[in-house]
Amino acid sequence: MAIFSVYVVNKAGGLIYQLDHYAPRTDTEKTFSFPLDLVLRPHDERVVVAFGQRDGIRVGHAVLAINGAEVNGRFMADGRDVLEFLGNPANYPVSIRFGRHRLSSNEKLMLASMFHSLFAIGSQLSPEVGSSGIEMLETDTFKLHCFQTLTGIKFMVLADPRQTGIDALLRKIYEIYSDFALKNPFYSLEMPIRCELFDQNLKLALEVAEKAGPFGPGS
């Protein structure tokens, strides 16, 4: 079981803190001969697998490196177009590393803002007055848990679907936020959290939650 990441979103929908705690390894590197038996397509400034899953390489995985050199979106380290390079028989055999695309800071900001809007929509769609909004989203590989405080701050945790004790962890994170961010004289409300003690205590709380599950009295 594992906790993947933590997001803190202010009441206006801005991302003020994000921590990647654990990222499952999805990278797969293989050596290919020509012609390439995978169908690659450009998507969102990246080159991704569109068809032909095999050996751990899945549809949607992006090209991360070619012959050991990291790829920058649709271009190789020397500026050559990835698709043009892979379309040339003279460049084979070639080693390609595929994997899940790493979110950029801007993408994380955008996704946090989108969830803020979905949370509000969920609250408005509820047939009952005073709905809290979206508290959990579940997929086959992770669950997103959300806790909103009375002041509108949202704490979000992405974890393995089998991970227990997330409700208690969310409240523990709120406690850490109150103790080490709000009481910091140099911290301004609604602004990004940059506090070493907050980081240290949050990481410790995540480790405790992964190993022991729910927090007990006095944790």
TrEMBL record:
Ordered alphabetically, the record's keywords are: Cell membrane, Endoplasmic reticulum, ER-Golgi transport, Golgi apparatus, Membrane, Postsynaptic cell membrane, Synapse, Transport
Q: Name one GO cellular component term.
A: vesicle
Task: Give a yes or no for keyword Iron in this entry.
Answer: no
Top-level taxonomic group: Eukaryota
Q: Using the record for this protein, list the coiled-coil segments as residue ranges, or answer none.
A: none
Any idea what this protein is called?
Answer: Trafficking protein particle complex subunit
Q: Which GO terms describe its biological process?
A: endoplasmic reticulum to Golgi vesicle-mediated transport
Tell me, in a sentence or two, what this protein's role is.
Core component of the TRAPP complexes which has a function of guanine nucleotide exchange factor activity for Rab1 GTPase. Plays a role in vesicular transport from endoplasmic reticulum to Golgi and autophagy. May play a role in dendrite postsynaptic membrane trafficking.
Give the protein family: Belongs to the TRAPP small subunits family. TRAPPC4 subfamily.
Q: Where in the cell is it found?
A: Endoplasmic reticulum; Golgi apparatus, cis-Golgi network; Golgi apparatus membrane; Postsynaptic cell membrane
Q: How does it assemble?
A: Component of the multisubunit TRAPP (transport protein particle) complex, which includes at least TRAPPC2, TRAPPC2L, TRAPPC3, TRAPPC3L, TRAPPC4, TRAPPC5, TRAPPC8, TRAPPC9, TRAPPC10, TRAPPC11 and TRAPPC12. Interacts with SDC2. Part of the multisubunit transport protein particle (TRAPP) complex.
What CDD domains has UniProt attached to this entry?
A: TRAPPC4_synbindin
Spell out the SMART domains in the cross-references. Sybindin (SM01399)
One of its Pfam families is: Sybindin
